[in-house]
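cron nightly-structures :: item 1 of 1
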Amino acid sequence: MEKVSPRTDILIYVVDDDPVVTSLVSTRLEGNGYSVKAFAYAEECIAALGNIPDLIILDYYFLKEGEIPMNGMEAYDEITRLAPEIPVIMLSAQEKGDVVLEFARKGIADYVIKDTDLIDNLLMAVKEVLER
């Protein structure tokens, strides 16, 4: 995959409860010149929206012991209510067509499946979304 020009002025929020995914995605985005702020849960990301990012990469399904955290659909609705100008890429292992279709109806910028091509597909989606 071709490296993009360093653009540390572009801030991307990465929201995923899996620290391995968060670390991998953050490292690769930073290696491509983006500034990244990572969050384990959507609620943390939403609380940080006082500093508007250029893009949010949001997991769909969150697990939190002893609590029921906001899921990606709920988080997307809240993000678009508070800051509709921020594009959101959904990142998930969720491949159910009805879920993907619902996000498309709501105006999600892109949907990337967590599979073996995750990083390449995500970097391509980030580049395309930021160029719009």
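cron nightly-structures :: done
The beta strands are 11-15, 35-39, 55-59, 88-92, 110-113.
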